[in-house]
Design goal:
By secondary structure, the chain is α/β, with parallel strands linked by helices. 50% of the residues lie in helices and 14% in strands. Helix 2 packs across helix 4 and helix 3 runs parallel beside helix 5. The longest helix has 22 residues. The C terminus is likely disordered. Belongs to the cytidylate kinase family. Type 1 subfamily. It is found in: Cytoplasm.
Length: 239
């Protein structure tokens, strides 16, 4: 695997609809770095739970599924796959059923411990192979990669986030109104920020970036400035 420009870890955190996934993939591609979507891992476990028929509030059963699930995620920003039992479930894990259940599953302490450990191993491996990785989620800067060379917490207004999510759903063939999406976004925020284990919150040393009035290139430009301020391109950087 070819060594890229980035040295170390960039942690992108923030709630749904702030543009994390698109920004993280484009950033990783621009820097020749690896990419990890931690949310896809929680969504895949959630899909496995739903397929099994286990209640999402049965923590013991949910953890058992998480411990035994055959889950693989791609770290190539240009070729994203989430494999469950060998099948690519990248589209299915973005569906409404998983979206409604993923906060409950990801709140199970044992599931988070299991997946965080796996995420840390992936990050270490990709950094060894490519030099750096862009990781996105809700607890990257605080839990998964607390020593990341750069931590960015993306925010946006509730209206902007709801509109973006609605456009994403429409592009994927899901017919959801902006009002319904706004309610879902608010529900996810409350659940994710209020859970007992690894709640969604910015790291103390994270740089806040409001994306409400920025397009994709504008967000990338802002983050690239931070990357260069920290000399993370082409030089060794601890994480």
């Amino acid at each position: 695997m070819q060594l890229g420009e980035l040295r170390g870890v960039i942690a992108l955190d923030g709630p749904s609809g702030t543009g994390k996934s698109t920004v993280a993939r484009r950033l990783a591609d621009a820097l020749g770095a690896g990419y990890l979507d931690t949310g896809a891992m929680y969504r895949a476990v959630t899909l496995a739970v739903l397929r099994s028929g286990v209640a999402t509030d049965d923590e013991e059963a949910v953890l058992s599924i998480a411990e035994n699930v055959d889950l693989k995620v791609s770290t190539d920003p240009n070729h994203q796959e989430t494999l469950l039992g060998g099948d690519n479930v990248g589209t299915e894990i973005r569906g409404q059923a998983v979206t409604l259940a993923v906060s409950a599953v990801s709140a199970v302490g044992g599931v988070r411990t299991l997946l965080v450990a796996r995420q840390m191993r992936i990050i270490a491996q990709v950094c060894e192979e490519r030099g750096g990785i862009v990781v996105e989620g809700r607890d990257i800067g605080t839990v998964v990669a607390p020593d990341a060379a750069l931590k960015v917490y993306l925010t946006a207004s509730a209206d902007a986030r709801a509109l973006r999510r609605s456009l994403q759903d429409s592009a994927s063939g899901r017919d959801v109104s902006v009002d319904d999406t706004r309610k879902d976004v608010n529900r996810r925020d409350q659940l994710d920020s209020g859970r007992a284990v690894s709640p969604m919150q910015p790291a103390d040393d994270a740089v806040w970036l409001d994306t409400t009035d920025l397009d994709l290139q504008g967000v990338l430009d802002e983050i690239m400035v931070l990357v260069d301020e920290r000399d993370l391109r082409g030089v060794a950087a601890g994480w």
